Amino acid sequence: MSDSKHRKRSPSPESHHRDSKRKHSSHKRTQRHTSQSSTHSKSSQKSQSVRNYSSTEHMTQHSSHTESNETIPSGKHSTYSEHLQSTQNTQQASKPIVKDWYPYCVVYDPIQVGSIDGTDTIPHDRAIIRALNSTYTPNNSLKTDPKHTLFVGRLNKNTTEHDLSRAFEKFGNVRDVKLIRDVITGMSKRYAFIEFENERPCVEAIRGMNKSDFQGAEIIVDFEAGRTLKGWKPRRLGGGFGGNKNSGQLRFGGRNRPWVKPVQLMNEEELRAWRRTNGGER
C-alpha cells in the first residue's frame, strides 16, 4: 500500500499531448511578439528616416528659397545684379565729379548743359531726356562760313535785316544777314544769323553787342552752334542755350548763361561772393 502511494504516476498520453500543445502555442506567441517588435522597430526607423528626409528637404527648400530671394528682380524686367549695378551707378552718378572746368560749352552734352555748373550726370527734366533721344542733322547746304557766323536772338519783333546790318557793320564787313521768319505768316521769329568776312569781327561783336539794348530789346549774341558745336541739339528738341527762368528749363554753358564755377573749385573769396548772390543766378 505504501509502495503504491510513493510510486510515481506515469504520465498519460493525453497529458503529454496537452503539454506539447502548450509549448507550441507559447513558442508561437514568442515568435509573434518578436515579429511585431521587429516590425515596429522597422516602421519607427522608416518614419524617422522619412522625418529626416522631410527635414532635409525642408532645409533644402528653405535654402533654395533664400537663394531665390537673393536673385528676385527688383525691377519689372531686370535681375537683381542689374538692379544693384544700376543703383551703384546712380549713387556714383549723384556725386558731382569735377576734373576740368570752363565757363562755356565746348562739346554739347544735354545733361551738363542743364546743370548750372556743368557737373550733373543724370537728367533732371523730360526735355533733357528728349534731347538725349533725339537726332539733329545740321543744314550743310548753307553757303555761309559757320566759323564767321553769329547768332543774334531775342530781337524786337519789328527789327529788320537792314537794322541789323547797320548795327553790326561797325565791327567789320558784313557779308550776309538772315532774319528767320515764319513760313506762313512772314512774321519775324526774333532771331537772325549774321556772317562776317573773318572771325575777328565776330569776337568784337560779341563783346560789344551781347546783352545790350537794341531797339528796346536785350539781345543775345553768340557764335553759331548748329554747324560748329559737336553734339548740338536745338531748343525745339530740348537743347539750346539760355531759356526763361519761369519755364524751369534753363540751359547753361552759352554766352547768355555761362556755367557757374563749381563749389569744389572755389576759393574763399569766390565762395563768399557766390553765397551773397543766393547760390548764383538760376
Keywords:
two-stranded antiparallel sheet; 8 helices; Alpha-Beta Plaits; 282 residues; four-stranded antiparallel beta sheet; globular; alpha+beta
Spell out the blueprint of helices and strands.
Layout: H1 2-6, H2 13-70, H3 80-93, H4 110-113, H5 126-133, E1 149-153, H6 161-168, E2 174-181, E3 188-196, H7 200-209, E4 213-214, E5 217-218, E6 220-223, H8 268-276
Antiparallel strand pairs: 1-3, 1-6, 2-3, 4-5
Overall description:
The chain has 282 residues and is of the alpha+beta class. Helix content is 41%, strand content 11%. It has a four-stranded antiparallel β-sheet, covered by helices on one side. A two-stranded antiparallel sheet has the order 4-5. A hairpin with a 6-residue loop joins strand 2 (174-181) and strand 3 (188-196). The model is unreliable at 1-8, 49-80 and 90-98 (pLDDT under 50).
Total strands: the figure is 6
Give the CA-based shape.
globular
- CATH topology of one domain, which one? Alpha-Beta Plaits
The CATH class label of one domain is Alpha Beta
| Poorly predicted segments | 1-8, 49-80, 90-98
CATH superfamily of one domain: RRM (RNA recognition motif) domain
The CATH architecture of one domain comes to 2-Layer Sandwich
Strand content: 5-15%
* Structural class category: alpha+beta
Mean pLDDT: 75
Write out the strand line-up for the largest beta sheet, numbering strands in chain order: 2-3-1-6
Main sheet attributes: strand count, strand direction, barrel closure: 4 strands, antiparallel
How far is it from the N-terminal to the C-terminal residue, by CA?
A: 145 Å
Count of helical segments? 8
**Assembly level:** single chain
Residues in helices, as a percent range: 40-55%
| Succession of helices and strands | HHHHHEHEEHEEEH
| Alpha-carbon Rg, integer | 48 Å
